[in-house]
Amino acid sequence: MTDDPVGYAAREGRRAHPRQGHEAPTHHTPPGRWADRLVIILACVVIFAIASHLELFERIFHFTRQHEEWQLDELVTLLMVGGLGLCVYSFRQARKLQREIGRRRDAEEEAERLALHDVLTGLPNRRQLIRAGRRLLARARRSGTTVAALYIDLDRFKPVNDLLGHHAGDQVLQEVGNRLKGLVREGDVVARLGGDEFALLAEIDEADGAARLARRVVQALRESMTIGDRQVVIGGSVGIALFPNDTQDGETLLQCADTAMYRAKAAGRGGFRFFEVGMDTAQRQRAQLEAELREGIARGEVVPYFQPLVDLSNGRPRRFEVLARWHHPWRGLIMPADFVPLAEDAGLIGELTLAIMRSAFTTAAAWPAPACIAVNLSALQLKDPGLAQVVLELLRETGLDPGRLELEVTESAVADNLDLAKETMDTLKAKGVSIALDDFGTGYSSLSNLRALPFDRIKIDRSFVTDLNENSDSGKLVAAIIRLGHSLGLTTTAEGIEDPEVAAALLRLGCNEGQGWLYGKAVPARDANAMMQAMTEAPLQGAGRA
């Protein structure tokens, strides 16, 4: 987009830059100038015609002749020419002022248009949507009709931006805007609210009309788009709120539709949901918990817990995995499954993990070598190009030897951006940090990734371990993963061990390490040191029973 909105320079009559070279620039008089000159000429003709009709010139001539002693010739000539010039000057200034007023009016109209419309799609923005919504709701009150608000969020838009670039993403948004405009009637409103979110306000006769419109929206967004030489398929989730059934206020109506949209996404995407009162309550509770989490991180309420990973052959600890726990002042102890997804959605996961790592590094630095810790990294963190430097700076700050730190990543997190993940891992590995592949077998398992990325260990997901002795397929799969790890020179760790018989079976298969409630649950820092000391002195239950 240029800085000259909609030909503003053209309306100001700016001249084009002269061509480069020896050819002299050709000056063209703008059409408006010729019109001004023609009006001036006509004005002069009219003035002379009136003066002639009134015999004004003859009367002035006779008067000067009768009073020659006054020497009025030069004065009369000056007054006539000066008066005519003053008329011409006044007329030109009036025309100039009129043009300036026109330019300012055009500029104000353009500024108003830009303030009320999305520049990319040309659709009304949120501000204009609320204005139009007030008018639409007022008309619906008078006529007794229903207004449906549809809040639309694209489902697979981010991969388009990441893989094809922002230009392709802009084209997708423009195409979505065109498709939505094609679904509504005159008087209905389609708006872009920002990012990949759109809204639609439409008068309907009944709730079934809103459902039919939502189905059409979902279907329109499912159809493929041609972006450059690529076929792109996205989709959308739709939340629906009705006036006057759900609320009497336009802004609240949009908020209700937004709440219903999140429920539609949670239900599996690519569908629609109507707003219900319980949704609003859940949304407010979620917003309240998010605010409490933000404050809790700052106050140090989210702390590291430590769960042992042991050598299956002797039951002695090799490292502790760091797990987050939230000590809420009045909700009590909150487990990660209840607040980590919230932190990711709210953009707090980086701040949360940073606080956990700083506390865990400080605790582990006081342990006797070679006690190590393992910390999980989220997919969002792996997309941060500065992650490696943050981790290394924390190690320097807390005094923890990099060789006593292991970072665990999931297969899906690595697959999101393989090149950046490899760059981050290589930087950390060069300083002595170990890297483990977590939940192996449940995500985007790839032998090429295992070979290309600098992993030291793979962790076998608990879903394969818990029924190892009862399910022959699980046993075969676990055995294959262990053989694969050994062939690549990787240590293997089994998660979710709760039964001594499962631990013995894993040891027979050649698994190196185990983790699970059989060896201990996650404990706070004050108990981790005592646990480590006890495990060092005597093997834990289930160890060394091949």
Automatic annotation (TrEMBL):
SMART domains named in the record: EAL, GGDEF
Entries under InterPro entries matching the protein: Biofilm_reg_signaling, EAL_dom, EAL_sf, GGDEF_dom, Nucleotide_cyclase, Rev_trsase/Diguanyl_cyclase
Compositionally skewed regions (Basic and acidic residues) per UniProt: 11-26
PROSITE patterns cross-referenced by the UniProt entry: EAL (PS50883), GGDEF (PS50887)
Protein name: EAL domain-containing protein
Pfam families noted in UniProt: EAL, GGDEF
Domain GGDEF residues, every copy: 145-277
Residue intervals of the EAL domain: 286-536
Keyword annotations of the record: Membrane, Transmembrane, Transmembrane helix
Organism: Pseudoroseomonas ludipueritiae
Entries under NCBIfam families matching the protein: GGDEF
Lineage: Bacteria, Pseudomonadati, Pseudomonadota, Alphaproteobacteria, Acetobacterales
Transmembrane segments: 34-54
Stretches for region Disordered: 1-30
Top-level lineage group: Bacteria
